[in-house]
Amino acid sequence: MPAHYDVLVLGAGAAGLMCAMTAARRGRRVRVLERSNKPGKKILMSGGGRCNFTNLHVAPDRFQSANPHFCKSALSRYTQWDFIELVEQHGIDYFEKETVNGLSGQLFCRESSKQIVAMLLDECGRSGVEITLDCETTKVQGTGPFRLETSEGSLRSETLVVATGGLSIPSLGGSAFGYRLAKQFGMEVLPTSAGLAPFTFSGLLKERFSRLAGVSCEVKARNGEVGFREDLLFTHRGLSGPVVLQLSSHWQPGESITLDLTPGKKLVPELLKTKQRHPRSLLRTQLNDLLPHRLVREIEDLFWSEHADQPLSDWPDRRLEALGDRLQAWRVKPSGTEGYRKAEVTLGGVNTQALSSKTMESHVPGLFLVGEVVDVTGELGGFNFQWAWSSGHAAGQAV
Ligand SMILES: Cc1cc2nc3c(=O)[nH]c(=O)nc-3n(C[C@H](O)[C@H](O)[C@H](O)COP(=O)(O)OP(=O)(O)OC[C@H]3O[C@@H](n4cnc5c(N)ncnc54)[C@H](O)[C@@H]3O)c2cc1C
Fold first, then answer.
1. What is the Å distance from ligand 1's center to 332 Cα?
2. Torsion sign over Cα 310, 316, 317, 320
3. For residue 52, what pLDDT band results from cuts at 50, 70 and 90?
4. Is ligand 1 within 6 A of the CB of residue 241?
5. Where in the chain are the domains?
6. Which residues, 6 or more positions from 211, have their beta carbon under 8 angstroms from its beta carbon?
7. Which residue from 151, 163, 242, 368 has the fewest beta carbons nearer than 10 Å?
8. CA-CA distance, 302 to 211, in Å (whole number)?
9. pTM of the shown model
């Protein structure tokens, strides 16, 4: 006879572990099957090793989905405050990240993201969750009970939770398994794409950006749809940094983006004023006060190389105005993103139409889907983990 459980959870990531511990606390007999050799790999790698585990400003409008209302119920029933309380109960010290614009609401572990994984495993262990690593599931059949063929043998369960995440970073567990299973049970999977990913460029612009690799500065970046003001990082392949990761989730291939290199500052009046006060100074000298020197050298070469050594007094106002405007609206066209290899999340996924927003149960009784596999994607800054905690908790209460 196959071993029988109340709940089988596929995937020991953020959403799966939260779901498992919540269900087991309610007395359910829970087993988690994880394909890789470690639980919570993405948690470990996240936030530069310190896990940006939630955000103080979680709100439904910080998430993208074909149905923007879907995330509301789960987010309101297990909030950032609930997760913070859990973190505090486990004595994990954390801090809010400061950005150039002030405080970001992003909460990070002061020590290590290992603490978050240890906390989830501790909660699972205390309530009797079994976790099996290196477990491959080859077949899922039936409904209540579900019958699973796995490398650990045949298993049965009353309910099945799919928490296998999305496609981003295959080496950290990214897989299409959840989408395939959803399709097998008749659910629609909306087109997926890489979200929160760096932009790549080609040709001369790639060469320029590559020369600037490592340089960062605060900019405002926008496309027709949205704009973000945060740090930009030049890379060997193009552009990255929080501002780019954010914008990439709203970017369509072929689209140009616009960079304001001096956000919050009106450059034209400033340049004209300097021309009056310091007529012998060079434009480069003036801009060096506002931007990294290496960047100024590169844009000088691009935009005003033939006038590079002319003092400001030789610049007609018209030309200064045109240049100032250009530096605040520099249009560049990415050739693509670095894709799932570097993306923090997967946009799209299992259509929420098939799911209850309260419990995450699908139209197939007993089959639940939680976390990134579902078509809900957060902004950068702890929102994606909060979705994993909230949706995992919602299912954990219902299985
Ligand atoms: C480098 C990086 C940094 C990030 N940093 C942050 C951050 O700081 N803050 C934030 O909010 N978000 C961050 N994210 C996003 C966040 O990690 C995800 O949104 C979140 O992990 C999704 O949780 P999940 O449980 O749905 O999926 P995952 O955490 O990806 O877990 C899915 C699990 O399922 C397993 N699995 C896959 N297929 C199978 C199968 N067939 N059988 C069994 N198991 C399977 C995988 O191995 C994995 O363990 C980051 C992502 C990356 C890649």
1. 31
2. negative
3. very high
4. no
5. 3-193+347-398, 198-337
6. 294, 298
7. 151
8. 13
9. 0.95
Give the right CATH number for 3-193+347-398 from 3.40.50.2300, 2.40.290.10, 3.40.50.2020, 3.50.50.60: 3.50.50.60
Ligand 1 atom 10 nearest Cα: 382
Mutation test of ligand 1: which of 9, 42, 132 has the most ligand atoms closer than 8 Å to its C-beta?
Answer: 42
pLDDT value at 373 more than 70: yes
| 312-364 residue pLDDT tens | 999 999 999 999 999 999 999 999 999 999 999 999 999 999 999 999 999 99
* Ligand 1: residue whose CA is nearest its atom 37: 164
| Ligand 1 proximity of 176 Cβ (cutoff 6 Å) | no
Compute the distance between CA of residue 389 and CA of residue 372 in angstroms, rounded to an integer.
11
Q: Distance, CA 6 to ligand 1 centroid (Å)?
A: 24
**Distance (Å, rounded) from C-alpha 133 to C-alpha 199?**
35
With a 6 Å cutoff on the Cβ, whether 10 touches ligand 1 is: yes
Q: Name the strand (E) or helix (H) holding 161.
A: strand 153-162
| DSSP string across 24-65 | HHTT--EEEE-SSSSS-HHHHHGGGGT-EEEETT--GGGEE-
Q: Is 6 exposed, middle or buried (0-12, 13-18, 19+ CB in 10 A)?
A: middle
Pocket test for ligand 1, best of 56, 151, 344, 374 (most atoms within 8 A of CB): 344
Judge: domain 198-337, CATH 3.50.50.60: no
Ligand 1 site, residue 33, Cβ cutoff 6 A: yes
Average pLDDT, the chain: 96
The whole-angstrom separation of Cα 287 and Cα 14 is: 45
Q: Is the peptide bond before 145 cis (omega within 30 degrees of 0)?
A: yes
Q: Is 137 in the pocket of ligand 1 (CB under 6 A)?
A: yes
How far is Cα 103 from Cα 94, in angstroms, rounded to an integer? 14
Is 394 within 8 Å of 165 (Cβ atoms)?
no
